[in-house]
Amino acid sequence: MIAVDTSVAADFLQGVASPHVQLLQDKMTSDQVCMAAVVITELLSNPTSPRLLQEFLHEVTPLEIETGYWERAGKNRAKLKAMKLKAKTADALIAQSCIDHDVPLLTRDPDFRHYAKLCGLKLAIISAAGKK
């Protein structure tokens, strides 16, 4: 199981060919894709969302919000901000959902590396062949 972030989901919906999208497609064929609620919100916020969006959202499992989620997300974000690291609110929420459910995040956004290094986020690793 992997969680997908907004950047990779948007690439998939726009038909971008990349190792990240290939891994997402591979995982989708075996029902192994989940998504944080904030990613769903970000995707639905695009006024020109692709027609495939609704079909795509039906094929992924939304991650439930666990008790204490908001507090943990805020504390992890504060930890990064105290170190003068980039820590957007949406990224903190995505990272915390993945941490809570112990699923690696498939992303092409380098800002998540701070959550991986300091907060316990697992990142999906893309090999040279494009598969984990």
Tell me about this structure.
With 132 residues, the protein is an alpha/beta fold. The relative contact order is 0.21. α1 packs across α2 (19-28) and α5 (69-82) crosses α6. The model is unreliable at 128-132 (pLDDT under 50). The chain has a four-stranded parallel beta sheet. It has a single domain, classed as 5'-nuclease (Rossmann fold), CATH 3.40.50.1010. The chain starts with a strand and ends in a 13-residue tail after the last helix. The longest helix is centred in the middle third of the chain and has 14 residues, at 69-82. It contains seven helices and four strands.
Please tell me how large the radius of gyration is: 14 Å
CATH fold-level name: Rossmann fold
Poorly predicted tracts of residues: 128-132
Biggest sheet details: 4 strands, parallel
Number of strands: 4
Fraction of residues in helices?
A: 40-55%
Derived from helix and strand composition plus strand pairing, the structural class reads alpha/beta
Query: Which of globular, elongated, flat, extended, rod-shaped describes the shape?
Result: globular
Beta-strand portion reads 5-15%
What is shown here, in short?
The chain has 132 residues and is α/β, with parallel strands linked by helices.
